Structure formats: C-alpha cells, structure tokens
Amino acid sequence: MDKLLRINMSVEGGPKVSVEGMGDYAGLAGRALTSAVVSREVPPLAHPLGEDNKLVIAPGMLSGTLAAMSGRISVGCKSPLTGGIKEANAGGQGSQVLARLGYAAIILEGKPRDGDLYRVFINKDGVTIVPDNSLKGLGNYDLVDRMKKEYGDKIACISIGQAGEMKMSAASVAFTDMELRPTRHAGRGGVGAVMGAKGVKVIVLDDTGMTARTPKDPEKFRAANRVFVEGLRKHAVTGEGLPTFGTNVLANVINEAGGYPTHNFLWGRFAGVSRISGETEAETEVARGGIATHGCHRGCTIQCSGIYMDKDGHYLTKQPEYETVWAHGANCGIDNLDAIAMLDRLDDDFGLDTIEMGATIGVAMEAGLARFGDAEAAIRLIREVGKGTPLGRILGNGAAVTGKVFGVERVPVVKGQALPAYDPRAIQGMGVTYATSTMGADHTAGYAVTANVLQVGGSVDPLKAEGQIELSRNLQIATAAIDATGMCLFIAFAVLDQPQTFQALLDLLNSFYGLELTGDDVTALGKKILTMERDFNQRAGFTSRQDRLPEFFKKELLPPHNAVFLVSDEDLDKVFNW
Amino acid sequence: MSDEPSDQLPTNGPNRLLLTVKAEFVPFFFPLLQKGFVQKTEVGCSLRELLAERFGVPAEYIENRIQTVFLDGKPVDDMDAAVVRDGAVLALSSAMPGLLGAIMRKGGYYSRMRSPIGQGTGGDAQRRADGQVVVKLFNLTVRELGPLFLERGIRIDPEDLKNLFRNRPEALEEGCVEAAADGRRVDPAQLPALDFPGTQVYLKLRTA
Predict the structure, then answer these.
(1) B128 at the A interface (CB within 8 A)?
(2) Residue A227 lies in a domain
(3) Which pLDDT band, with edges at 50, 70 and 90, does B118 fall under?
(4) Which of A19-28, A271-280, A382-391, A452-461 has the lowest mean pLDDT?
(5) Domain co-membership, A432 together with A401
(6) Residues contacting A178, CB < 8 A, separation 6+
(7) What gap in Å lies between CA A74 and CA A68, rounded to an integer?
(8) Is the Cβ pair A257, B73 closer than 8 Å?
C-alpha cells in the first residue's frame, strides 16, 4: 500500500491513469490521507462538482492486513452538501481489496469533457478505464449484478446509483459486502455526487493473486491481533450486545432517555419504539430465516450487522442499522420495520445517505407533503428521488434544501448536513460535537477511544460547560485518529474499557509498520487531521457562525424532559483551542 | 430471581392467563417486556433493594450486568440513592454500544455529557408501602431476566397481548402446549380470538 492511483478525467482523448509514490503523503492512510490530499490539492473555493474538486478513496493503515476489524475505508472531497471538507466512511470489502492491490488511495481528478460515463477495473496487472454508457440509470443492485456477470464473483465494487449520477447532495458511494451486494455506503456529505461529477459509475476491484499485506514483525503482529480479538470478544458490548442485536439495540435506551428524535425533532420519545427496536428487529430476522449476527467485511469479529428478509423469506436488504431505523422510522413517525427495510433497500439502490433521506422526509412531512406515520408515502417520496422528478431532485439534495424550498423552520442540520439520531437537547455533549465537527452534524465525529485511556486534555470538571467542550474535543481528536487506521469505530467500547485492548491496537500498528507509537502519537495524529480540516473549512469561508446548532434547539422545549440546548456560543468556540 | 409464590397473579378474578409453553417458545413474549409490564411490589425502597430483595435479581448481576438504568426516564448512577416511588417506570439494560451507550452507562466517565436530563433519583425518600412499578427490559436483560419475570407473572396492556397473538398465530399454536384463561382451559389456537376486558391482563408462563 505504497502508491497513489490518480485518474484524471479531464484529459483530451479520455481519462489518464497514473501511478505514483506516496511522496509527502507517506505514512498517511484513511481519513488522514483523504483530508491531507483535499486540504492540499483542492482549492477551497472550488465548486464541489467542478473539475478542481477531487474524490479520494483511501483504505486505513491496517486495511488489507489480517488485523481484525480493519476493513473501513474513507472517501474524501469538498462536500456538495456542506461546502466544507468531507470524509465519509464505509465498511464492506473495498478497503481490504484495494489495500491488497497495493493502493493507498484512488484519486479521481478533473471532469470528463464528453459527458460519458466510465467504469474502472483494477487488478494485479493494472488499471483499465473505459466509457460504458449502458450503465447509465442503473441502480446499485443491477449495476453490481452486471459487473458480476462480466468479472465473476471474486470482485469488490465501488459505485454510485442514480442519485450520484444526478449529482444530488445526499448521494452516497456504495461498497459491496461479503455477499457482493451494494449495502455498505460512504453516506454522508454527497460524496456520491462528486463521483458522479467525475463521470465514474463503478470501480471494480479484483485482488486475485494478491495476498494479505505483510507486517514488519509478523510474530508480534499475530500476538497483538490475538489479544485485540480476545478483548473484543470478552467485552459485553462488542462480544455480546452488538452481535446479538446490532446497533439498533440503542433505540429503546435512547428513547427512554428522551433523546430519540421523533416527528422531525418535535419530541424525544416515540410511542412505537418497541416495534422497531434492535431486539424486535433481530427476532424478526431470525424468525424469517435471515441472520441477526453478521459482519460487513471479512475479518470483522463484532458482527453487528445482519440480513433482513421480507415476509415471504426473500432477501430484502442488510440489517438496517440504528441511524437508518431512526431516520426512516421514529423521525417520520413510522413504526413498521418492513417499510423501513424497504426504504433502506431503496436508499442503497439509488445510492443515498439514509440519515439525510430520513431527515429530509421528516422535513417534507412537516411541510405537509405527507402525513407523519405514512410509510407508503415515504416510500413514494424516495422513489421520486430515484426517478429524478423535480420533487425528487429537491428531496435528493437533502433536508436543508427541502426545508428552504417548502418554508420549514425546524430543519435539523449543521453546515447543511442532517443531524443523526440523538437529540442534542437531551444529550448536550453530543450537541457540542454536532455543532463543531468539521464534517457537519456527525454522530461518529466524537466517538472513539478517549480521555481516560489516552489522558488527553487533562482532567475535566463535570459541573462546568467546559467539561462538555473538553470531552467533545478529546472525542473528536481520538475519532479522527481511529478513522485513519481503518479500524471500525465499534472497537471503541472495548478499547475504552480495557487498557490492554488499547495497547493491543497500538501493538498492531507498531508491529506492522515497525513503529513505536504511543497514545500521545495517536493524539497528535488526531489533532493534525482536525487542524487540516479546520484550515480547509476556514479557507472555504467557514467561520464560527457555522459551528452552531439550528436556533430551534435553543428555543423549543423537547418533551419529556423539556430541555433546550444550553451550551453557549462562547464555549462552542473553545472546542478547537489546543 | 425469587421463586416465591407470585403475588402478581390473583388466584381468581378476570383476565388471568396461564400458559404452558415449550422452553424455546419463551422469546415469543419478549416484545411485551420491552414495552413495559407492571409489577406489584413494595415501593419506597432503594432501586438496589427493589431489584435484589423484591425481584430476587442476584447482586452480581445487578452490579456487573445491568449497566444502564433509567428511573422515570432519567439515567441512574447510584442504585442505593435512587428511591422507587409508587407508579415509577424502571428500565434495565446491559452495556450499550457507542458513545451514547457510554454516556448513559451508570456511573460512567461520560455521564456528564448527558446533562441537563440529570440523574434519576425517584425523589425524596418515601414511606414503604404496597404499590406498583412499570418494568422495561432492554438488550440482553430481555433474554436473561425476561423468562424469570414471565414465570413470576406480569401485568400488561390487553391490546399488546392481542397484537402479539394475532401477529404470529401459527407460532403460537406450535409453541403453546396448554392455556387457561380465568381458570378455564382454552385451546391455544383460540388465543388470538380471546377478548380481555379492562386495562390489564395478568400473564404467567410455565415451561413444559
């Protein structure tokens, strides 16, 4: 994984492929690499859909190795949704396969002059890129079936659906899973629209003939991996809760806390939560012959995903996860798991971010386009997006655009990106991260290994607003670093609770690269990434005014606790003071 | 869990449903436990006392397995300080994923990020008296404590029970061996057609 693959789509006579060494990017991977390339090479004032923007697809530091949980991939660009820097993160097979092929990143540059749509094929022998307009208008599922017929089933695909082709700001980039289905998405920020603007429909990866990346110290690496996996398996969350019920196990608890946004963030509790909870979802999956414990990529030991069958026992979609079930469920007043699973399937097929689309449908319902709770109407609205009707084009550009078009005041976005499934009025610390993240409202921005393990930021006074600020800061730093490793963020619990598991993670990195990283180095990497991202956003015109929650969070009481967001603007502005 | 004769079920009176089911069929009833069920019990005691002494949950389980607790919608950090009032709503969960899981965990490092919803204490100490609490079981506690509460007997909304029966009647017929409603034997296949007047039905399971 020591080379960069650049594909310049602007070149007269067709796209030009070049392979180069890492140069100044040596040692970077995942989010660290995508943000470094975007920050350094993309003019901050470039139009996100223009030729000067770049789409960077980068496996993590440990991707392609035999390390457990190392299959996350980062997709970076200037975001058409936020106007700032973006890193969207996905599971699936793409990260492992691309890393084994030796590429630290694919960088799509320029813009085709001919309006053609291209497919890219990469294997051990090199790269081919050909125009293929027969792929125009295909959903991700049909597209992957076409690629399977042509290249066999030992491939991994990176693709866009109709939403990406139409350059919608909610468009995702899809990655195929172990079953070669396009179910894993770099969802946030409209990265699919940028891939569409580059004229690339699909990148097919085939690592036949390649082997796992070799560590500098194989024995130490194996030992560290063993301790790491043991740590994950013995922990109640990563070894039991997540494998048994998936991420949607959170639904009941967040609802009980009064922080489960319902009816477009009007209430903090949803009466129908037990019908769409992770416990019910897992039971439904098993009863129908699906799977409730399944990984999204090879080497996943947590297995928080699953397979969701319809009432007749036929495959419908992968197990919709917590954010998706919330966005299309409680947020829209829908308590029908089958309808939510259908919405998830349509989002995956059209290539759409499920969080953005659930939030958008919620805003559309608030505007009167449909009744809250009307599952059929929600499905109809998503189909409008796939067809690209005028209404669909509005919805496909996200909650902020939809709110503006239909005159809705309660629009839950930060930097133009929809809030995920935790109401910041009930969980203030999460609100700090939503407001200040470089990515727009993002629940994963402050998620990972943290202060009590890394000892970053010193002690925190829980009674002061600064406590919230400092915790959010430390979480964002640690998360940025984890995003660079290619590790799934769900390792955070075991790493958080078990110092030996955190040490095993460091040992994996050190034995693979021959380094002597400490917790301080991990912290420094996280700070470096965030600094690059903040710098890009500032040059793109962002000020502290973008680091704010929408006004209604400060004014409208959220039942049942009747809380508002209390952290002051002055305190929010301290998050990145280090 | 205490196996003392249940005080949840009246020996006579309307809306008593006693089911004998195959052991593997017990999870069929778990959705009822997420939504919440009523337990008659002495109230005015601490949360730890309620769980350990009234419900018979082992101390080790309370300490290590129950990682997230809500009392009247507020997360609880101190099980000894939290007092259970009459009519309280209690939700129990094992460890939860994600940052939010960490924030809601009892006594967790990140509990400070949850303010202003604060900590559930159930109010000032109250006189001990007979009363009732609503219990909700989430995550692994559904599987681990659920069968024990079902055996002890629970009071639930009749509509929820009817919906459960009507959603999967074929499973009910397969998994339920014997049924008795208000002391009279009922064909398990007829359970979806039963009507339960009033606001509560008393459900108790036995495994065959």
Answers:
(1) no
(2) no
(3) low
(4) A452-461
(5) no
(6) A93, A295, A296, A297, A298
(7) 17
(8) yes
B162 touches chain A (CB under 8 A): no
Distances in whole angstroms, Cα of residue B66 to Cα of each of A207, A282, B47, B141, B178: 45, 21, 12, 8, 33
For B66, name the nearest residue in chain A, comparing CA atoms only: A236
* A149: in domain: yes
Half-sphere exposure of A154 toward its Cβ, with a 13 Å CA cutoff?
A: 7
A363 and A434, same domain (yes or no): no
**Is A383 a domain residue?**
yes
Domain at A493, CATH number: 1.10.599.10
* Same domain for A452 and A359: no
User: Are both A103 and A179 inside the same structural domain?
Assistant: yes
Residues B104, A253: C-beta atoms closer than 8 Å = yes
**Alpha-carbon gap: B106 to the closest alpha carbon of chain A (Å):** 13
If one counts the domains in chain A, the total is 3
Predicted local distance difference test score (pLDDT) of residue B155 = 95
- The token duo for A154 is 């030992």
CATH number at residue A188: 3.60.9.10
CA angle B2, B8, B11 (to 5 degrees): 115
Q: Is there a single domain that holds both residue A501 and residue A362?
A: no
Contacts of A247 in chain B (CB under 8 A): 97-98
> Distance (Å, rounded) from C-alpha A454 to C-alpha A478?
8
Same domain (yes/no): A351, A450: no
* Sequence ranges of the domains in chain B: 16-207
ipTM of the complex, rounded to two decimals: 0.88
Cβ-based neighbours of A156, under 8 Å, separated by 6 or more: A92, A93, A94, A96, A97, A98, A175, A176, A180, A204, A205, A206, A207
Residues A454 and A547 placed together within one structural domain of the fold: yes
For testing contact with chain A, the best of B61, B94, B117 (most A CBs within 10 A)? B117
The domain boundary, picked from A352, A385, A411, lies at A411
Q: What is the DSSP string of B46-101?
A: BHHHIIIIIS---HHIIIII--EEEETTEE-S-TTTPBPPTT-EEEEE----HHHH
Q: Which residues sit opposite B156 in a β-bridge?
A: B201
Q: Partners of A58 in the beta sheet?
A: A74
Nearest alpha carbon to residue A270 among A207, A344, A327, A191: A327
Nearby residues of A227 by Cβ (< 8 Å), 6 or more positions away: A500, A501, A503, A504, A507
Percent of chain A with pLDDT strictly greater than 70 = 96
Position A194 pLDDT exceeds 90: yes
Q: Chain B closest CA to A218's CA: distance in Å?
A: 31
Distance from CA of A43 to the nearest CA of B (A): 34
Q: Between chains, do A252 and B115 touch, taking CB under 8 Å as contact?
A: no
Would you call the peptide bond into B116 cis, given omega within 30 degrees of 0 as the criterion?
A: yes
Query: What's the predicted TM-score (pTM) here?
Result: 0.93
Q: Which domain holds residue A201?
A: 3-206
Tell me if chain A has a CB within 8 Å of the CB of B75.
yes
Which amino acid, residue A544? S
Q: Tell me: do A444 and A534 sit in the same domain.
A: yes
Residue of A nearest to B34 (CA): A274
Question: Residue A252: helix, strand or coil by DSSP?
Answer: helix
Q: Does B98 touch chain A (CB under 8 A)?
A: yes
Mean of pLDDT values over B98-112: 70
Q: Does residue A549 lie in a domain region?
A: yes
Instruction: Give the Cα separation of A254 and A236 in Å (integer).
Output: 18
CA distance B30 to chain A (A): 8
Average pLDDT over residues A244-255: 93
Distance CA A416, CA A189 (A): 9
CA pair distance A291, A343, nearest whole angstrom: 19
